[in-house]
Amino acid sequence: MVLSMTSTEAEYVSIVDGVLQIIIATAANGTSMDFGGITAGKAALDALDSSVGAILLTGSGANFCAGGNVRGFAAAENRGAHVRGLADDLHEFVRALDAAAIPVVAGVHGWAAGAGMSLVCAADIALGGASTKLRPAYPGIGLSPDGGMSWTLPRIVGAGRAREILLTDAVVDAEEAVRLGLLSRLVADNDVRTEALELARTLAAGPRSTYASIKALLAQSDSATLSDQLDRERDAIAAAADSATGHEGVNAFVEKRRPNYS
């Protein structure tokens, strides 16, 4: 995949070993959400092709993302219009992430607050460190959630716990985040970005049509009956067995070799 990017966009988006890396917060922006990254990331997601097998979300500063730029909110002439515009841009990015048929990994170092926490919830797999903390942060500034948190959080932690976390503006530490399923696992603080990239590389080299099927089945399962889901699983696994990916996977197993899905 070759992206046609301006020098500004290239600061936020890169492709390494089949992984589309998107920086969503920067030190220059005080680790608040950097909409240069959100805009460049949305354009890159719209241009995805088969050369990209995984997406990695990360921040380049001390935190994954400390939330929205509250000073920017305060300085806006029309705060409602300003925040609405930012929410529109963020939500288009979240929609593009959700539409991607490939795995989305988040490397969550430091704080993930406000919209940063929303993007953690939007990832398929999120790695953190012992110092990682998550916080909705919206009640603290008198605002309500954005970035899909009111939809994703209850599906991850349950409706009752989501109400408590949002209403009390709870700080969720790393161990609790793993227990609740907000983070998949913990690695050393200094290794969060490296481990997240390595995981994304491994996924990018894997069976992409299988991952697409898994993501589709999981997305459908929330509103499906068991009987409907069993039918979908049957159809999906039968289609996979006839696919090039399925042939390679089964043949490699029988031949006792590592499958080559490239």
TrEMBL record:
InterPro entries: ClpP/crotonase-like_dom_sf, Enoyl-CoA_hydra/iso, Enoyl-CoA_hydra_C. Gene3D superfamilies: 2-enoyl-CoA Hydratase, Chain A, domain 1, Lyase 2-enoyl-coa Hydratase, Chain A, domain 2. It comes from the Bacteria. CDD domains: crotonase-like. Residues 240-262 are annotated as: Disordered. Belongs to the enoyl-CoA hydratase/isomerase family. This is Enoyl-CoA hydratase-related protein. It comes from Nocardia callitridis.
